[in-house]
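PROTOCOL LOG
Step 1. Enter all chains and additional molecules of the complex.
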Amino acid sequence: MDSMDRSILKCLSENSRQSATEISQTVHLSVAAVIERIRKLERNGIIRQYTVVADQHKIGNDVTALMEVSLEHPKYYDEFTKVMHDNPSIVACDYLTGDYDFMLKIQTKSSETLEQLHRIIKSIKGVSNTKTYFVLKEIKCGTTAMAEAQ
Amino acid sequence: MDSMDRSILKCLSENSRQSATEISQTVHLSVAAVIERIRKLERNGIIRQYTVVADQHKIGNDVTALMEVSLEHPKYYDEFTKVMHDNPSIVACDYLTGDYDFMLKIQTKSSETLEQLHRIIKSIKGVSNTKTYFVLKEIKCGTTAMAEAQ
DNA sequence: CGTGAAATTATATAAGT
DNA sequence: ACTTATATAATTTCACG
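Step 2. Run joint prediction.
Step 3. Record the structure below.
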């Protein structure tokens, strides 16, 4: 993971569908070398996934919400996190220090589907307390902090 | 935006670097048609960005935090959101209902760099109040809720 | 809108430095 | 590790249903 890898990763985080040929021009390396480095970043698990950022409203998700959730006891952790992974409307979930145990980010069709999801979450074994915030506007939504390659 | 578009978008959200040839096999459409639909999704702004999910620890970001921030007055909104966009350590920022105005997600090298960033944020004009939570574990981190194409 | 074939690019492989 | 050259595969363009 040297500065060349960081430059390549930065290119991919800005546009993961650009060709190795384009990347090779910005980082000044041969195409074959760029491809080999990308493969290594994938094998090492530095690149976990290639994905897209989609416009939520345009795909029919009009409601974004954050939800704080607490568990009665850590023994419920595994079952809870499984539900997080399995539910496609839950786009992010962090285990936290503080008053609540988890912070969830939810993207869903309407306040009605949010209410359904809220009921699902409250009925997960061990969930004791929740608090929901509506997102009025997503100012920024990324996944990866890519500092500049020095 | 029909069910075929949703299927293609789901493929890309799972792996944005897979070829149109592969996608054409899963969605049962010709390669040229898949490419044309992808271009249309891009032009319509349904696809906002192609990006990667990187392992934060492996790229040297050992600290993830959520920060709640309040502004004294909405007139500071534009300047605040500009800082959000410009700072690469701030990976997400939502404008919220509730006690605080914004929820930030921060990924940074160490608690020292978090402290520096905290100081930067507190010194933005209009920022009145902040509250920081440490993320102990990222259970899930995505950007896009992709419901199944019916 | 969709397909299929030809032309253009990109990627993968291998040999040499 | 990187480069160059070659082989394989993907994408783009376009004429046509």
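Step 4. Note key features.
The beta strands of chain A are 47-54, 63-71, 90-96, 102-108, 127-141.
Chain A has a mean pLDDT of 96.
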